Amino acid sequence: MKAIVTVMLKPGVLDPQGRAIGHALETLGFEGVGDVRAGKIIELELAETDAAKAKASAEAMAAKLLANTVIESYRVEVV
Amino acid sequence: MSLRAGIVLFPGTNRERDMAIALAKVSGGREPVMIWHKETSLPPLDLVVLPGGFSHGDYLRCGAMAAQSPVMRAVKDFAEGGGHVLGVCNGFQILTEAGLLPGALLNNAGLRFLGQDHHLTVAQTDSLYTKHYTQDQVIRVVLAHGDGNYFADSTTLDRLEGEGRVAFRYAGADGAVTEATNPNGSQRNIAGIFSDNRRVLGLMPHPEDYVDPLMGGTDGLPMFTSIVEGLAA
């Protein structure tokens, strides 16, 4: 199975990269863009065939390594 | 006086020689031992140093991969047993990723890599590393980082300040600690912090870069003379 882990900076943590993207969009003439946040997507190929177990396993990986929970939150989706 | 220091090397570490020069200078020429990240134990040491660099190419997050290295289990045991650990720049990032120091280092708020001199104030002199400085002394050091923006939640920040665990703050040449003298967006201008027993120190600037007039400065030297006075047999 494949697990897709999305890692984002937590609300309240300054995201200078997101802000720079926002400024660039404004410069390009796109209007009405509010707060921009940039994150990471990590795709994992897992040998596990049980979706619930695969999700639990990917969540453990996210908590231990893929995200730093001091500054980031994560979401796991199994497909 | 002779100090048994060990410097941990990760793939991508690149500031170990400067650190070795600074340590040898205050330790009668005794060279620190270099310890590869695959090692699972440490030789008998007075001090472990995690130097600067770009361990594992800064992949995922700065210091995230290095924090999971085999040697870090031994470094954690060493710290938990009351050992002294100094992390500079990438070493500070590794210490936070390994959970040996609280908080995290984010992208510089201005998004630019900073390679420049900057001033600090010494916020805590009651430690192995800082006792040869005076309280609120202004020192000039070198910054060389892209991810030095110290972040912790306000409860953690209050605790660090309340327990006297802020070691250094970014300042102006006159010692002013303000938003204008904050080069990278760090919370409360924090440049370096201690563990709760003040035996683990992490800081973003490079004290090892200014230990000889020929380098352009000597304001880093008191850190190394403090260490050797406190630890060397």
TrEMBL record, chain A:
UniProt GO molecular function: ATP binding; phosphoribosylformylglycinamidine synthase activity
InterPro entries according to UniProt: PurS, PurS-like_sf
Catalytic activity: N(2)-formyl-N(1)-(5-phospho-beta-D-ribosyl)glycinamide + L-glutamine + ATP + H2O = 2-formamido-N(1)-(5-O-phospho-beta-D-ribosyl)acetamidine + L-glutamate + ADP + phosphate + H(+)
GO BP term, example: 'de novo' IMP biosynthetic process
Main localisation: cytoplasm
Cellular component terms per the entry's GO annotation: cytoplasm
Pfam families in the record: PurS (PF02700)
Translocase among keywords: no
Pathway involvement of the protein, from the record: Purine metabolism; IMP biosynthesis via de novo pathway; 5-amino-1-(5-phospho-D-ribosyl)imidazole from N(2)-formyl-N(1)-(5-phospho-D-ribosyl)glycinamide: step 1/2
Compartments reported by the entry: Cytoplasm
Keyword list, A-Z: ATP-binding, Cytoplasm, Ligase, Nucleotide-binding, Purine biosynthesis
Self-association and partners: Part of the FGAM synthase complex composed of 1 PurL, 1 PurQ and 2 PurS subunits.
Homology family: Belongs to the PurS family.
Function comment: Part of the phosphoribosylformylglycinamidine synthase complex involved in the purines biosynthetic pathway. Catalyzes the ATP-dependent conversion of formylglycinamide ribonucleotide (FGAR) and glutamine to yield formylglycinamidine ribonucleotide (FGAM) and glutamate. The FGAM synthase complex is composed of three subunits. PurQ produces an ammonia molecule by converting glutamine to glutamate. PurL transfers the ammonia molecule to FGAR to form FGAM in an ATP-dependent manner.
Record-given protein name: Phosphoribosylformylglycinamidine synthase subunit PurS
Organism: Acidisoma silvae
Gene name of the encoded protein: purS
